[in-house]
Recover the amino acids of this structure.
């Protein structure tokens, strides 16, 4: 306020423009919707609870990250990406190219084998590329974020073979609901919004000299593909697994092939 616009750095001008715009739009929404003092106090208490419950990462990744990702995706030429979400943990163990993800001996759910190859934009396979995977179990819970799921469950960094190939056995992830007992769940109820995401696999695909790709894979005919609370589904990311012979355990087993194309690392 005390500085003139010519004293500002480029960053200050950008922060000024963005922050003033956000604050201005909130104030305009209050006018457009005739917000009362009672509603202002309720909204304020709700915002305070989001912080107290540690749900800002959840709130932002569910309702905001998709727009940032869509902007970033405009300049992409490799495989399609989508949002990271709040449940990535960076320290998953490295695993060989043909592997079953760490899971409980009695892990519930149908089995899924994901096969594919990681290549450069020019078509060359990338040996020693990594497929850093994490997902919910059939119960919809993520390890590291749920008391009943052992640490490290359904997480791993699969390293490709000499031909850039991988073959990962896992379970089909169940649909996911954001926590219903916290402020974000409260917002869904208050607004009559569905709190669900379709079942999905998360991946960060990386390779030496390449730009890492953050993405998710979804499954055809699943519920919530058309009303993902996190707005992260893209048609290119929907898999069509085919049933394959089982392993004798009585569980269904599906297989699908999906290749990834990585861009060169930015200069
Ligand atoms: C998830 O599992 C998720 O992937 C996102 C984007 C948001 C909330 C929970
Ligand atoms: Fe997720």
């Amino acid at each position: 306020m005390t500085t003139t616009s010519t004293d500002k750095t480029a960053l200050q001008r950008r922060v000024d423009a963005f922050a003033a715009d956000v604050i201005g739009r909130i104030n305009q929404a209050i006018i457009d919707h005739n917000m009362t003092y009672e509603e202002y106090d309720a909204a304020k208490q709700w915002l305070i609870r989001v912080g107290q419950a540690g749900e800002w990462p959840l709130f932002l990744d569910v309702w905001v990250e998709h727009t940032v990702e869509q902007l970033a995706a405009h300049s992409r030429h490799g495989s399609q990406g989508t949002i990271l979400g709040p449940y990535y943990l960076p320290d998953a163990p490295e695993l060989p190219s043909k592997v079953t993800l760490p899971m409980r001996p009695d892990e519930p759910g149908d089995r899924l084998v994901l096969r594919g190859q990681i290549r450069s934009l020019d078509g060359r396979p990338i040996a020693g590329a990594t497929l850093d995977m994490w997902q919910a179990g059939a119960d919809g819970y993520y390890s590291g974020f749920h008391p009943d799921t052992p640490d490290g469950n359904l997480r791993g960094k699969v390293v490709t073979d000499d031909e850039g190939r991988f073959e990962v056995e896992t379970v089909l992830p169940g649909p996911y609901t954001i926590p219903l007992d916290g402020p974000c769940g409260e917002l869904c109820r208050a607004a009559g919004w569905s709190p669900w995401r379709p079942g999905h696999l998360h991946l960060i695909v990386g390779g030496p000299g390449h730009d890492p790709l953050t993405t998710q894979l979804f499954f055809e005919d699943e519920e919530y593909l058309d009303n993902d609370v996190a707005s992260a589904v893209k048609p290119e990311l929907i898999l069509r697994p085919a049933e394959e012979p089982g392993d004798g355990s009585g569980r269904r087993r599906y297989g699908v092939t999906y290749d990834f194309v990585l861009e060169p690392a930015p200069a």
